[in-house]
Amino acid sequence: MGVNADRRLIVAVDIGGTRMSAGLMTLRGDLIDRTQAPVDQAASEHELFDALVGLVDDMLVRADEHHHLDPIAIGVGCAGPLTADVESVSPANLSMWHHFPLRARLEAAVSLPVYGGLDATSLALAEGWLGAAQGRSNFLAVVVSSGVSGAIVLDGQLVEGATGGAGQIGHVVVEPNGRRCSCGARGCLDAEASGRSIEAITGRPPTEPSYEIMQRTGELVGRAVASSCNLLDLDLVVVGGQVALGFGATFFNAAQAALDRHSRVEHTRGARLTPARLGDRGPLLGAGALGLRGLRRQGLRPVPPRRRAPEADEMDQVDRVDQVAADGVEVADGVAETPAPVAPVAPVAPVAHVAATDAGGVAGAADSRPSGAASSSSEPAVPAQPDEPGTSGASGASPA
């Protein structure tokens, strides 16, 4: 006799430059528990990994003793560069990890299968499943945090490219002959608008920006986004990350204005840029979605018995998840009703100040414009969550 599918969980892990987070996510996308710890930039690669394992172990204990539920996989969102399913990670914001074998080490430590991907891929899956891009088949997701990265969804499928590196908007050149990027080129978006570059340019952390820096960062992101929209015929861009959300309305208004100026061809006129809707839950929900996607691709592969192997009816449950951004799985029956389309946002003026406790975990900087809209720390409303990951008839990206 099978185990009730409602008892199963994904352990979601988000690895940022200033904090690491872990949480427990149900297969319906409910984040029922979470914890976090600051990142010690002076730690060795082994010390950082031990801190990560401590967070995961804490969630496994909570799942067992407090929630009485069964974790079946771990999903990891992490800054790049990295290889498929976080086999090897070299996050630009974590210098102690260079070609670090994260997947093998974490599977050995906790005896659960590990799946993962870039932080921007995590954002795209989360926002396409439950957030600002719900029900949308085509959109760009951008993370502006300690680094800048992106992910593309076309026709309801995540575009990964030949090596899994598609969507890296951080290496679109926005300032010819600008600052030297870590990739070796000059003027890349990552070298001009990331949290690391802002601190290098100003001598101040991105949580203490001037109005001019917030406006310049938005302008540069808008330029890069416009090029992407013109190239790929996109009309929606979802932006998250501690820098973007922390800069609030000043950033989003400048980015939208730049997008409007540079998207003049007919198919991209009216393209809009909107903040990620899931707030500080987004990175963990996206990491959980990466775990679901990995399970679906691998058919719930067995693992050593720290947690029991999944049974046949559990596999059926995962099969009911609707189309996978990366795999194009057909929409299954018996899932929730189709969500309403995302309401237009034009041109982001109501955003005011958005609290930013995302993947990097640094509180957002207040909009420092002398006379602007009153700031608000309220998180944008999150739509009602579906009964299953994805929705019947919806074409937005979904995880499993």
Descriptive notes:
With 400 residues, the chain is of the alpha/beta class. The protein has two domains: 5-120 and 280-319, ATPase, nucleotide binding domain (Nucleotidyltransferase, domain 5), CATH 3.30.420; 124-277 and 338-351, 2-Layer Sandwich (Nucleotidyltransferase, domain 5), CATH 3.30.420. Helix content is 31%, strand content 16%. Strands 3-2-1-4-5 form a five-stranded mixed sheet. Strands 8-7-6-9-10 form a five-stranded mixed sheet, with helices on both faces. A hairpin with a 4-residue loop joins strand 2 (19-26) and strand 3. The longest helix has 23 residues, at 45-67.
Helix content: 25-40%
Q: Give the biggest beta sheet.
A: 5 strands, mixed
Q: Which stretches are low in confidence, meaning pLDDT under 50 for 5 or more residues running?
A: 301-395
The number of E-state strands comes to: 10
CATH class division of the largest domain = Alpha Beta
Helix/strand-derived category reads alpha/beta
The CATH architecture of the largest domain comes to 2-Layer Sandwich
Note the gap between the termini: 24 Å
| Largest beta sheet: strand ordering | 3-2-1-4-5
Order of helices and strands: EEEHEHEHEEEHHHEHEHH
How large is the count of helical segments? Answer: 9
Strand portion: 15-25%
CATH superfamily (homologous) name of the largest domain = ATPase, nucleotide binding domain
Determine the CATH topology of the largest domain.
Nucleotidyltransferase, domain 5
Provide the domain count. 2
**Rg calculated over all Cα atoms:** 20 Å
Mean pLDDT: 78
